[in-house]
Structure formats: structure tokens, C-alpha cells
Amino acid sequence: SHRAWQQAQEKRNLLEKRRVVWLELKDTLENQALGFRGDTGIIIEDLNTGWRFSLNQDKLFPSASLVKIPIMVACFQAVDEGRLTLNETMVLRVSHKTPGSGILKNIASGTAISLEKLIEIMITKSDNTAANMLIERLGFDYFNDFFRKSGLRYTNLSRKMMDFQDRKRGVENYTSASDIAYLLEKFYHRQFLSRTVSEKCLAMLLHQKVNDRIPRKLPDEWPVAHKTGLEKNVCHDAGIVFTPQGDFLICVLTKSRAGTQQVKEFISNLSLVIFKTYQQFPYSRYSFLKNDRGTD
Q1: Is the pTM of this model over 0.90?
Q2: Rounded to whole angstroms, how far apart are CA atoms 16 and 73?
């Protein structure tokens, strides 16, 4: 019918307008990335069309706390296999307590904590003690095996969080922008292990309390499901931003001698540039432009 033809034409026009704006965005992102003092691996993706900007996507970076995303999904896989149950508890010992981010280091030793709670605070509060307890529970081999099997080509787990002795000896955990983006995309499309697990992972990332990078310059009403990473000379953030004009994935890994504040500013500026671009996108009632699977 004429009406169907009209709608198809309108869709094509909208998409073409978006494409022009997206190509301008890619140029801007490239210029910003080239101005960065240090190494950076970046993936920006429009989750509704699959359009993508990437730079050094397979480059290895020390993962810092970004490795907590693959640790989280490996734990859910272990639950699926019957190796763990989420209500099983672990007793917090003095030897578990790890410096850096988190709340467990200040909790009384001898406290029993469920594995579900450990996973949750490892993500939302980036708790290093929780991560190390989960690593102890499943073992390095289980995690590395799972990473390989699930398609993470550049991610490994070789030492516990904040293990500076190992770090000095050159033992390091690595990941890449491509691996982290792969996981986030799978969560978004509800394709990681199962719809339920994907939604659980997204829900935890949405409750992230460390918001000084990707979300920092964005309006509060835009939900951001993300995870940060920070260590000496290493500063990352990776996540999904949900907007009325469509949802985007942003994954920025950095290694730099520039001060931490400068690097955080670099990440939040990239996020802001994308935000401004999405504001220019024509708002659309078409499902291929506004994908509401991301917020249910």
C-alpha cells in the first residue's frame, strides 16, 4: 500500500540522516583519541544499527577491575553447571581482606556472605576482597578455561586483585576493548548464557557506584550499565548508555602516564561527545531505531 511505502521511505530517510551524523561522530572520536597522551583501546557502537568506531580494539591492557565483568559471568556459568549455588556462603577471613576499593575489608572477620552478595558488591562497589574470595572459590583454571570457551580471546586471570608481589614479578591480568565489548553486547541482546543471566549482569552493572568516567557529564536520567578499572597508569571504563534516541556501547581502555584526573576527563569527554550526537538523532517510533530491549 502507499502508506507502507511511505513508512519505508521515512525509515530510509531517518537512517540516512543518522548515518551522516554518525560518520561525523567517528571523525570527532578519532581526533580526540589521537590527541590522547598514552595508549588507548576504544570501541563505540550504536547498538540499534551495529555501526561501530574502533581503535586498537585487540590491544592488550592490564585489566584492573574490568576483569570483574568476566569473573561475574564465569560465576553464573558455574551456577548453571551446578558447581555453585548463589545462596551458598563463604566466611570472610582476615587473609581475604584486600586493600583498594570495596567495603568488605572493613567488615568483621568471621562474617558469612552469600556468593550472590559477593558477586553483587564485586561489581557495584568494585570490591577487591569479594573478587578474591570468588577467585579462591572457583580457582584460576576454571576462570581461564571459561574465558577461552566463551570467546574471550584476550582475557586472562593470572593473579588476584591488588597482588603487588605478583605484579612486580610481571604476572598480570590482561583484557582488550574487543573482549569487554563482546560481553556487553551479549548482555544487551540477552544472549549471554540465558536471558535471565544477561539481565542479572546488566542489572548489576546498572547499579555501579563508581560514576566518575562515562556517566560523569551525562544527565542523571540516562541509565548507564558499566564497570570501571583503575590501577597505577591504567584507567578504564566500559558500559552501555541507554537513551531515548537509541542505546550505545562505549568501551575505553587506557594506559598512560598522564594523571588519573586527566584520563578520567578524556573518557568522560568521549562519552559527552557521543551524548551530544545522540541528541541530534531524530527521535523515532521505529523499533529498529529505538530498541527498548535495553531497559526492560
Answers
A1: yes
A2: 37
